[in-house]
Write a structure and sequence with these properties.
heterodimer; A: 326 residues; alpha/beta; Rossmann fold; seven-stranded mixed β-sheet; five-stranded mixed β-sheet; 14 strands; B: alpha/beta; globular
């Protein structure tokens, strides 16, 4: 297997495959057609599938997301691309009040098989309106599923998994990962939604993370190994549903927990994971749980400030050392 | 449009059914059988009845939280609507929605939305799907004058016009967004002009006349099905009752209400039928009796309905075949 496929290409390939196999799948969003996608994910798809299925929308996040919901209700399998997570707030009404509630409000009559993809995360000096990690917010909402592909394989698999799901699925793609490379297996069975993956087994500390922070955690694990600290790194993959079983099994093995999350701490998914461990595995813990999250500021522009605000491998290393008393 | 005796009876029956059904709802609300919000459509019945008349079974309807009239006119049963208000499993939304969220997929009745203007984008998407699948259907989206202040209204009109989608937008302009008069919130109070600015064929009509709305709706649906893109109808109407059961109506003069009640759609229609000599044949007494029987039956059905088992509380959050 080569390692030449980029995350961007993996998403594109998955969309292409889905559109080839299923006439009801289409892609809609700002600049997805003639521009080729703000992050070039959909480059070339307009020529391949035409303007009827690769639809450029006006800057109307609320209505084109709502239109995705309506199309999903009426037999289509839309993929709505929202340029970046901060813009998804303009569509929050449709996501929360319609996509997440229609099945329930209608007493089970109307499911919404909609896929919404968006770029997320900081690290590109795009400041406080283009850099946040709000996937944990969306994970608060019953009725939604929230996926956070970190690897190139998941970038590929999750598009298909989301399209196969009868309910609304949000996919958060870290903007910084689009150029990352890996290999994809297009023939295998994808790891299902709601299943976490152990990326590195270890016995001393469990690190639970997702998205781009996975790679920071793996980098930290390598450094810690040199100190003789054997870290287990788990990619949550899905923030809703959360894979409690894999989390608790790891806690039972290591008895120590660090959560790495690019969201802020307050009211966050990291807080939720800690709460669940507290509820389900409290007596397994040998030390207070710790978190490495984004500092509670709107992300600043200046590089040194942004770097200081975001979770970094060194912060993870320091946190682990403190936890181990080293 | 032709107004024969059968159609006259049907219109009168449906408008009166809505009126009497909601009057009973008020009693049931006072008796605490119905709870939550209850928004009455009384005074505006002509619009729902006439619009639904223009549709086929394949067309789709999206309405607001003041939608009992639409559900009834669309053919959702009195029983299932009343049971919904009672919060029973036999309700059209299994008691999960209540008055504001009536749904019936088999009638292609898609709610029942309580976010003002929130259904417009859905209507655009449903129409987009029809266009993509080359199905000759219309999606009707109804909303009030309050919706035109929302961004989603403008975004949706633009999309529908841009993509020439088969949507019929219907604004029920009853002059008040809850308790604030249109003149306090809109720089342009002639709402149809806003739609026209998006290059949508649009007009203002008398929403108190079931005949006029029916004519306009029929023409609009024909135009849309001919592939001419969306149509916008602004129906001038008036809500005779308070906004909801918690509204003391401090924002409008009694004289204004009295003036509008002279244009009661039932009264207007009755007078019209008298003019053309059909009224005596309509047999209003028989219709009144039939409606009373139907509503009594619906109340009994709702009373005898079952409460969903608590162990099913978390159902319908995800589809049962859902992965993960």
């Amino acid at each position: 297997m080569d390692n030449t496929t980029t995350y961007r290409e993996a998403v594109r390939e998955a969309i292409r495959k889905a559109m080839t196999e299923n006439e009801s799948v289409f892609l809609m969003g700002e600049d997805v057609g003639h521009y080729g996608g703000c992050y070039a994910v959909s480059m070339g798809l307009l020529d391949e599938f035409g303007a009827q299925r690769i639809i450029d929308t006006p800057l109307s996040e609320s209505s084109f997301t709502g239109a995705g919901i309506g199309a999903a209700l009426n037999g289509m399998r839309p993929i709505v691309e929202i340029m970046t997570v901060n813009f998804s707030l303009l569509a929050l009404d449709q996501i929360m009040n319609n996509a997440a509630t229609l099945l329930h409000m209608s007493g089970g009559q109307l499911n919404v098989p909609l896929v919404i993809r968006m770029a997320t995360g900081g690290g590109k000096q795009l400041a406080a309106q283009h850099s946040h990690s709000l996937e944990g917010w969306f994970a608060h909402i019953p009725g939604l599923k929230v996926l956070t592909p970190a690897t190139v394989q998941d970038a590929y698999d999750m598009v298909g998994l989301a399209l196969a799901d009868p309910d609304p699925v949000l996919i958060f793609e870290n903007a910084l990962l689009y150029n990352s490379k890996g290999s994809i297996d297009t023939q295998g069975t994808p790891v299902p939604i709601g299943k976490a993956l152990i990326h590195k087994a270890g016995k001393d500390i469990s690190i639970f993370t997702y998205g781009i922070s996975l790679f920071k955690a793996l980098e930290a694990a390598e450094a810690l190994a040199k100190d003789g600290i054997d870290v287990e790194v788990i990619d949550l993959r899905s923030l809703r549903p959360l894979d409690d079983e894999t989390v608790m099994n790891s806690v039972k093995k290591t008895h120590k927990v660090i959560i790495v999350d690019e969201g802020w701490k307050s009211g966050s998914i990291s807080a939720e994971i800690m709460a669940r461990i507290n509820e389900q595995a409290f007596y397994e813990l040998d030390a207070p749980m710790a978190r490495v999250c984004t500092v509670e500021v709107p992300l600043p522009y200046a590089k040194h400030l942004e770097d200081a605000a975001l979770p970094q491998p060194q912060k993870i290393v320091d946190t682990a050392r403190t936890m181990m008393g080293k | 449009m032709e107004l024969d005796l059968m159609k006259a009876k049907e219109f009168y029956h449906k408008m009166l059914l809505i009126r009497r059904f909601e009057e009973r709802c008020v009693e049931l609300y006072s008796n605490q059988k119905i709870r939550g919000f209850l928004h009455l459509y009384i005074g505006e019945e002509a619009i729902a009845v006439a619009l639904m008349d223009a549709l086929t079974k394949e067309d789709a309807v999206l309405a607001t939280y003041r939608e009992h009239g639409y559900a009834l006119a669309r053919g959702v049963s009195c029983e299932s609507i009343m049971a919904e208000m009672f919060g029973k499993v036999e309700g059209c939304s299994r008691g999960r929605g209540g008055s504001m969220h009536l749904f019936d997929a088999s009638a292609r009745f898609y709610g029942g939305s309580a976010i003002v203007a929130g259904a417009l984008p859905l209507a655009v998407g449903m129409a987009l799907a029809d266009k993509m699948q080359k199905r000759n259907r219309v999606t009707v989206c109804v909303f009030g004058d309050g919706a035109v202040a929302e961004g989603e209204f403008h975004e949706s009109l633009n999309l529908a016009a841009l993509w020439k989608l088969p949507v019929l937008f219907v604004c029920e302009n009853n002059l008040y967004a809850m308790g604030t008069a249109l003149k306090y919130t809109e720089s342009e109070t002639e709402i149809y002009k806003k739609a026209a600015s998006y290059k949508i064929s649009s007009k203002q009509i008398d929403g108190m006349s079931v005949i006029e709305v029916a004519k306009a709706a029929k023409r609009a649906v024909e135009d849309i099905k001919d592939g001419n893109g969306p149509v916008f109808l602004e129906c001038l109407t008036y809500r005779f009752r308070a906004h909801s059961m918690f509204d003391a109506e401090l924002y409008r003069e009694k004289a204004e209400v009295i003036e509008w009640k002279k244009k009661d759609p039932l009264l207007v229609f009755e007078n019209r039928l008298k003019e053309i000599g059909l009224w005596s044949e309509v047999d209003a007494t028989a219709i009144e009796d039939a409606i009373k029987t139907a509503i009594d039956k619906a109340v009994e059905f709702a009373e005898n309905g079952t409460l969903e088992a608590l162990e099913d509380l978390e159902k319908f959050v995800y589809s049962e075949v859902s992965h993960g």
